[in-house]
Design goal:
Length: 517
């Protein structure tokens, strides 16, 4: 890659603010973390089980991955021509004039998501049909070809402005598949990878001078680079770029081998703080669309590198164990690296990803179960809330988002460890609450700047003159929430790590009494 017109980019050193800190979760002082953590380490077919575990223990997340993990609740907004055709997967030959969101109100989206406790929202700027929600210079299959707002509409502009106005981070989904470009002979046309100048020059270009790249790509790969360039240079800071791996509904002998390396280079240069998910090196798909992580979810997993630099699963994407000791051994001979590749749990609030009037949102109980099964298991929740044909979130969905946040707040009210006396010994954190308190929720977190190390732990309460086990599990990672079957009353509590890969740093040991009401 070459870049002309020197671009000065300063990588962010600060990490996004985390949750409030209580006495019990204040970690002891530690040596500064290197600016460039080792987020992946090579592995080989002759590595023993012990060597694989040791390497996994040495993997560290990047600053952008730590910031992403702390978001906890993120949102998807599937919106486009499918919203108006009733399809889930478009065909690419839609009449752009079908797109008519007469009451588009992205401020309403942002308010509803903020009030629902979400920190970032991802808009489907382009789904598999190829219809683009901003006036791109590189396709006519866009809002500019619709009579909506006389061809002057720009959903992406409105979305990005509204999210920032209400304090949410901005994410973009740009589908690698493109049915419209297939119909135009660009997508999956068998072209060779050659060097392309990005952005591709166009007539009457009104853009100010910016960086110019020379990158290897197919004809379609260059088309994607041009659209990525537009999105990442004209709409303000982008915090997440979301790629899937879909190929589109094209003949089986037609395959587009995506130019991942060039796409990643462009994103890293133009949006250095953005996480690249889920066909990307920063975040992985959890393996299902039900919003649930594994009971023991590892952020350090064995991976392989395919198709021009794409990070891919060394094991099956839906493997029951993705990063435990057995998984590390099972991937031996297949994996190229062990990598910090945390899980994102995507699920829709309705049955479909796009809006359908005959569908209703999930119940509060269902969403709460999903929350504990994602955020409570070392993953980030990505909940889809699709705008309707008027361009607004349905009133029932808005209500459900608020109810969901209120329910989580009742499940995890004030942390009882605030102001408590804390004692730390190797592998154990003990909390004295000062008096007996009832507890039925326990929240734990490791200081993931130093990796993910806990393999087994127990939570104990001092009752009847002795320590009694009340809960336990395997992994902790960035967030682990345990629901006790019944409230336990005790003054002294402790978490004790019974197996780990390396030195453990517990950053959070919170105790709660739910007020579900």
């Amino acid at each position: 890659m070459t870049v002309s017109r020197r671009l000065f980019v300063t990588a962010a050193a600060a990490i996004a603010a985390s949750r409030g800190t209580s006495a019990a979760l204040a970690a002891p002082a530690a040596a500064p973390v290197a600016d460039e953590p080792v987020f992946r380490i090579p592995v080989g077919p002759t590595d023993s089980a012990e060597v694989l575990v040791r390497k996994a223990s040495q993997v560290r997340p990047t600053a952008r991955q730590i910031a992403w993990q702390r978001l906890e609740r993120t949102a998807f907004l599937h919106f486009g021509v499918n919203t108006f055709t009733g399809l889930e997967w478009g065909t690419g030959d839609e009449d752009p004039d079908v797109f008519q969101p007469a009451g588009l109100d992205t401020d309403q989206w942002a308010r509803a998501l903020r009030d629902g406790g979400f920190k970032l929202a991802i808009l489907t700027v382009k789904h598999h049909d190829g219809f683009v929600l901003y006036p791109s210079r590189y396709t006519n299959h866009s809002v500019a070809s619709s009579s909506w707002r006389s061809g002057q509409g720009d959903v992406l502009r409105s979305f990005a402005d509204s999210m920032r106005r209400y304090g949410l981070k901005v994410g973009v989904y740009i589908s690698p598949a493109d049915e419209n470009q297939y119909l135009h002979g660009v997508y999956a046309n068998g072209s060779a990878r050659t060097e392309h100048t990005i952005p591709t020059p166009v007539g009457n270009d009104d853009r100010p001078d910016g960086p110019v790249f020379t990158l290897p790509a197919t004809d379609y790969g260059a088309h994607m680079l041009d659209q990525l360039y537009e999105v990442l240079t004209e709409y303000g800071p982008v915090d997440e770029v979301w790629f899937d791996g879909a190929q589109g509904r094209i003949p089986p002998d037609k395959v587009e081998k995506y130019d991942w390396d060039s796409w990643y280079t462009l994103v890293r240069t133009l949006a250095p703080d953005a996480t690249i998910a889920v066909s990307g090196p920063d975040v992985r798909w959890v393996g299902n669309e039900g919003g649930l992580a594994r009971e023991n979810e590892w952020s350090v997993v064995p991976v392989t590198e395919k198709d021009y630099g794409r990070t891919d699963f060394a094991l099956s994407y839906d493997a029951a164990d993705m990063g435990g000791r057995d998984a590390l051994v099972a991937a031996r001979g297949v994996a190229d690296y062990v990598q910090w590749w945390p899980a994102e749990c995507d699920v829709s609030i309705r049955d479909g990803w796009f809006y359908h009037a005959d569908q209703q949102p999930k119940t509060v109980d269902q969403l709460t179960e999903i929350y504990f099964g994602s955020v409570g298991r070392n993953a980030v929740l990505l909940l889809n809330v699709p705008p309707d044909t008027d361009g607004r979130l349905a009133a029932s969905d808005v209500t459900r988002l608020r109810e969901f946040r209120e329910r989580v707040d009742r499940e995890l009210p004030a942390d009882l460890t605030l102001g408590a006396q804390v004692t730390r010994t190797p592998g154990t954190v003990t909390v004295d609450l000062g008096r007996e308190r009832e507890v039925d929720r326990v929240r734990l977190a490791e200081d993931i700047r130093y990796g993910q190390q806990v393999e087994d732990f127990v939570v104990e309460a001092f009752t009847g003159g002795r320590w009694t086990r009340v809960a336990g599990a395997g992994t902790v990672g960035a967030s682990r929430i345990l629901l006790l079957t019944a409230p336990v009353r005790a003054r002294r509590w402790r978490v004790r790590v019974t197996r780990s890969r390396s030195e453990v740093r517990i950053a959070e040991f919170g105790l709660y009494r739910s007020a579900k009401g």
